[in-house]
Specification:
Blueprint: H1 2-21, E1 43-48, E2 63-69, E3 76-84, E4 90-93, E5 99-106, E6 121-123, E7 127-129, E8 138-142, E9 158-160, E10 164-168, E11 180-187, E12 196-199, E13 207-211, E14 223-233, E15 246-248, E16 252-257
Parallel strand pairs: 1-8, 9-16
Antiparallel strand pairs: 1-4, 2-3, 2-5, 5-6, 5-7, 6-15, 10-13, 11-12, 11-14, 14-15, 14-16
């Protein structure tokens, strides 16, 4: 009996130890760090060219940039990241700080010819990116602008200084038909970041009338000048950090001639 009692006590003690060893313990929740493979802090998108077919591929690798909204402000900074698309126009950015971003396409100042059916500059509406997002936001942007039936004046045609010139064009593909305004600006050179000569009043119409100043009515100031058609969201403004979609055609060369 004494041996049985000792065995019983030993067995009971083993159960107690086993029970204590099996007690659950509280472990801290690990911190999740966003990685390129997770939805957090990512932004995807696509540049399309839909003149022939809806959502058509550009067929070549393009460069896309990001504009990041400044913290607590209603404006955006210059671009903060650059990516290349695939030939279908798809792109992706990863590990982004929490902010609003705009997709920014710029063909780096290519001058228009008699066949030019893409924008020179295009900037999207802003999209929010957060480290806590559960799905990857997407921002697509249409680059096509249909000039197949002709824009007036066509590239490399004559315009007369001192006389009104009529401009006409088709409205931009892929933006609101009722919430977009257009503006024509004539520049001294293909660098349309400065040197504006004259601009039309922004409006919803796809036409404008401008007069190249009479100061261009001499041999030294006549010659090749460039105009662009700008578009942007109504009440939003063109560039200058505005958080709205906007863009413009490639610079279109025209020959300014001396009037009679």
């Amino acid at each position: 009996m004494k041996l049985q009692s000792k065995l019983a006590l030993a067995f009971a003690g083993t159960l107690v130890v086993a029970a204590i060893a099996g007690c659950p313990t509280t472990t801290p929740t690990p911190t999740v760090t966003p990685t390129p493979g997770n939805p957090a802090s990512k932004l995807n998108g696509r540049l399309t060219f839909a003149l022939a077919n809806d959502g058509a591929s550009p067929g070549e690798v393009l460069t896309v940039k990001l504009k990041q909204a400044l913290t607590g402000a209603s404006t955006a900074s210059n671009y903060t990241a650059t990516a290349s698309t695939d030939t279908a126009g798809n792109f992706s950015f990863s590990d982004l700080p929490n902010a609003k971003y705009q997709i920014w396409y710029d063909d780096e100042g290519k001058v228009a010819s008699t066949s030019f059916n893409t924008t020179g500059v295009a900037v999207s509406d802003p999209v929010e990116v957060s480290s806590t997002q559960t799905a990857v936001p997407s921002q697509n942007m249409e680059l096509a602008w249909d000039f197949t039936s002709g824009v007036v004046p066509m590239p490399n045609t004559n315009v007369t200084a001192g006389s009104p010139t009529s401009f006409s064009f088709k409205k931009k593909n892929g933006v609101s038909a009722t919430d977009t305004v257009y503006q024509v600006t004539v520049f001294s050179s293909a660098n349309t970041g400065s040197g504006a000569i004259v601009s039309s009043t922004p409006n919803e119409a796809a036409t404008a009338s401008l007069t190249i100043p009479a100061t261009f009515q001499n041999a030294s100031t006549a010659g090749t000048r460039y105009y662009v058609v700008k578009y942007y969201k109504k009440n939003g403004g063109f560039g200058n950090g505005a958080l709205n979609y906007y863009g413009q055609t490639k610079p279109i060369p025209v020959t300014v001639v001396v009037g009679s």
